[in-house]
Design a protein that fits this description.
Length: 120
């Protein structure tokens, strides 16, 4: 089974997934801090991640995803929307959660402690 690993705050979350699972859905299995304001319908960019390993294991980006990424912050060559990037082959996919996605996650989950905020 494929493995997906998220990186953020110097921490990692990892899970195995069935082929065809998108990164956003997989993040929920381990409560990785990946945003999803639109619920995974490719209408926002809050699930924006950087694929650092295993890009070739994912479904190719389609035009709709590329259009939404045009509106995202700090887009890079390895940017993907978690709701659109499906794991299609066995192996390890590693993603770094973007600042945009982290901001969205902590706004969506006010009960979660954001380690980026210093305690006073």
């Amino acid at each position: 089974m494929p493995t997906v690993r998220w990186l953020a705050h110097g921490t990692s979350w990892e899970t195995t997934v069935e082929l065809g699972t998108d990164l956003r859905a997989a993040s929920k299995l381990v409560e990785a801090p990946e945003g999803d304001a639109c619920g995974g319908v490719c209408a926002c960019s809050t699930c924006h991640v950087y694929v650092t390993k295993g890009r070739e294991l994912l479904s190719p980006a389609e035009e709709e995803e590329e259009d939404i990424l045009d509106k995202a912050f700090d887009v890079r060559a390895n940017s993907r929307l978690g709701c659109q990037a499906k794991v299609m082959k066995d192996g390890l996919v590693e993603v770094e959660v973007t600042r945009e996605s982290l901001d969205a996650f902590y706004n969506e989950h006010p009960q979660a402690i954001d380690p980026r905020k210093k305690k006073h």
